[in-house]
Design goal:
Elements: E1 5-11, H1 18-28, E2 33-38, H2 45-51, E3 55-58, H3 65-78, E4 83-86, H4 98-106, E5 112-121, H5 128-149, E6 161-164, H6 165-177, H7 187-197, E7 202-208, H8 232-254
Helix pairs in contact: 3-6, 5-7, 7-8
Amino acid sequence: MKNNVLIALPAKDEEKKLGPVLDRIRRYFPGVDILIIDDGSSDRTAEIALEKGVLLFKHDRNYGYARALQSAREFALSRGYEYLVLCDADGQHEPQDIGRIIEALVENKKDYVIASRVLGSAAHGDPFIHKYGRRLYSFIVSMMFYPTFRTKITDSSSGFKGWNKRVMDVLSEIFKTSNKLHDGRINDLEELFLMSRKKFSVIEVPGRFYKRADDVSRIYGNYGLSGDAIKIKDVVYVLSWPVLFFRTVFRNIFR
């Protein structure tokens, strides 16, 4: 397992949180390779990764979450890894639960694994609109894909997940040859459409999620819903989200 699995953490300006997260992953999974995708950090994120002795892929500027995922996929494929697990660098995901993802990928032979905060535990004090908006979204997505996956999807927007090699191959190629998977706000839905089309297996495992100390993610957009000051662009995004959702649905159904 140690030679086949890569644990990747997209990170931007996480010098305060990255070290402890890496220490915990190493404690639970000694010998498993860890990769930091530094998405244009202006602090010591890259230096801390090197000090901790993990692999580092550094972007020359901030490209966003979707590009960070593609860099993780390309790195894993180029180095011959069979499995890729994605985990937050800011401490929101419980590192010990990486084992559940690996077990589902390696032992249970699943293609695409989601760590669900609904099956596990969500951060205490999650904003109302964030918590229930996420549940409504997951309910709609679950209804859409149940005929294909034959399983309920309780947390479709979770970024705590894992892929095997054939999933990485498909997602990497789609990213390079189309305009799909380029928007981190809706990537999860587009990924599920691709999994459905390829008849790949999708499963959820319990995952524990924690609240950030400063409650502001730097690599994900929080759109004023996670503690940062609300800006006009945040309101515009929230109001335009249904358009984004239906655009993604239609372009994946008819193209």
